[in-house]
Design goal:
By secondary structure, the chain is of the alpha+beta class. About 20% of the residues lie in helices and about 40% in strands. The protein starts with a helix and ends in a 6-residue tail after the last strand.
Length: about 150
């Protein structure tokens, strides 16, 4: 499948390297996050995320302060969503059951974060691109049953 010229141009504007056909992009971030919508408290966190260049996959790991007592893994691996929370890196607090809804959510996250991994825009053949009209693109990943 040939990548539309508009998509290729977008990837290059975002800094994609046409010769980098394998590997992954690594993102790091420090910030603050609420652990629920109702919470009034913000928790500091440090995270590291890898995003695949040739497949729809990512792996996000965050540790929340103080002392990194809470660890969160949010991922899309081998076409399945994952969300796990542990205390002190050992005690499971949340382990989301695999579901279509979870996997769809993780696929949407991967698509939303593509600008942070522009090489994936060029080289991920698991993405289906469509030029809608001037300055408007549509993209999807995953099997048709997930759409």
């Amino acid at each position: 499948m040939t990548l539309p010229n508009e998509v290729r141009a977008l990837a290059l504007r975002l800094g994609a390297d046409p010769s980098r056909v394998t590997g992954h992009s690594v993102l790091r971030q420090d910030g603050e996050m609420k652990l629920s919508l109702a919470s009034q408290h913000w928790y500091r966190f440090s995270e590291r995320q890898t995003m695949a260049v040739t497949s729809c996959a990512f792996d996000w790991h965050a540790r929340f302060s103080p002392f990194g007592y809470l660890s969160v893994t949010d991922a899309l691996k081998a076409g399945r969503g994952q969300l796990d929370v542990t205390a002190l890196g050992l005690i499971p607090l949340v382990r989301s059951a695999p579901s279509v809804a979870l996997t769809k959510g993780e696929m949407l996250r991967y698509l939303a974060e593509l600008p942070f991994a522009p090489d994936a825009i060029l080289h991920n053949r698991g993405l289906t691109w469509q030029v809608m009209e001037a300055n408007q693109l549509a993209v999807r990943c995953g099997p048709a049953a997930m759409q």
